[in-house]
Amino acid sequence: MTAPPVPAATGPTAAVHRVFVVRELGIALALLLLVAVTFATNTRFLSGQNVKDLLLGSTILAILAVGQAIVIITRNVDLSVGSILGLAAFATGAMLQSAPGLPIPVAILAGMALGAACGAVNGGLIAAARVPALVVTLGTLYVFRGIDYTWATGRQINAADMPHGFLRMGNASVLGIPVLALFAVVVLVAAGLFLRSYRSGRELYAIGSDPDAARLYGIPVGRRVFWAFVTSGALAGLAGVLHAARFGTIDANAGLGQELNVVAAVVVGGVAIFGGSGSVYGAALGAVLLTTIGSALPVLGINPFWQRAAVGVLILAAIGLDRSLAVRMARRLRGGGDRGR
């Protein structure tokens, strides 16, 4: 039986969508304000090299945030992305070390395939066995990291052992824009187009809003959630490849603790932790904002402790706003229902 088309957002839903667009604009304004204040304190903050470093610093986090946003929109979470990044980074380094002539596109696809396989493990356990995503991905976080440690056995892959063409990709620029940042732009545009223009992408929002109602509506919830985790894993694998290209020196600790930064970027970027709303553009903006905070506070002479405190305040404010919007939305729908009687 074919499921009916997912209706476009109208009425209160469209209003809430507009609120999230305004939130994304608010994040962009906060980013511009932070940059302006820091630039006024130290004009070298916007030097060509520093801007390039900011773009490079936010690229990997933004790619991870796009994949995480897709998962969180379905009312799930993927805590294993840091471990998948580390595993893909070390696998890419080991592969290029043993086969220096391997074409770079093949290395990228191999890293993404490894990440997708890890995501399939997560998605299979969550969708088929219906085990909570928090429990599954917390477990696979340690499993994937354990595989990485076992494989590495204390080894470190140095930049001297990597092909020069691959390392050059990590620092090259096109018209002043780092190549790695262009990867993030392509991923962001593709994911945004998928979520907005394709039925299977819009169905992810329906799943996050109410999984039971989505099943009754005929949406294949398990299959959609499975592919959301596969996508998150593939993007984490891509981030691992780019990590290897940027830093050159790789060990089993690559990406350690990154999952918390990713979730923070997504939540700060306006993706509701309860699922069903938000966008990958906001998640990417959140990644850029967190990266800029990390670079700006030392320039402003602020203790690094306050960086973590500022991120914590942003997360709490974002969750509070999400909850407020959800309550307001429920009241508006009840009001509309009462008027319809």
Report the count of strand segments.
Answer: 2
Percentage of residues assigned to helices: over 70%
Strand content is: under 5%
> Unreliable runs, pLDDT <50, ≥5 residues?
6-13
The major pleated sheet works out as: 2 strands, antiparallel
In spatial order, strands of the major sheet run 1-2
Multimeric state: single chain
Shape: globular
Number of helices: 13
Question: From the helix content, strand content and strand pairing, which structural class follows?
Answer: mainly alpha
- Average of pLDDT: 86
Instruction: Supply Rg.
Output: 21 Å
Gap between N and C termini, in Å? Answer: 32 Å
Order of helices and strands: HHHHHHEEHHHHHHH
Question: Which keywords apply here?
Answer:
13 helices, 341 residues, globular
Write the layout of secondary structure elements.
Elements: H1 11-41, H2 48-73, H3 81-98, H4 104-127, H5 133-152, H6 164-169, E1 173-174, E2 177-178, H7 179-197, H8 199-209, H9 211-217, H10 221-247, H11 258-268, H12 280-299, H13 304-340
Antiparallel strand pairs: 1-2
Helix pairs in contact: 1-12, 2-7, 2-10, 2-11, 2-12, 3-4, 3-5, 3-10, 4-5, 4-10, 7-8, 8-9, 8-10, 11-12, 12-13
Overview of the molecule:
- The structure is a single chain.
- The chain is mostly helical.
- Helices cover 75% and strands 1% of the residues.
- The chain contains 13 helices and 2 strands; from the N terminus they run ααααααββααααααα.
- Strands 1-2 form a two-stranded antiparallel sheet.
- The longest helix has 37 residues.
- About 2% of the residues have low confidence.
TL;DR of this structure?
The protein is mostly helical. It has helices at residues 11-41, 48-73, 81-98, 104-127, 133-152, 164-169, 179-197, 199-209, 211-217, 221-247, 258-268, 280-299, 304-340; strands spanning 173-174, 177-178.
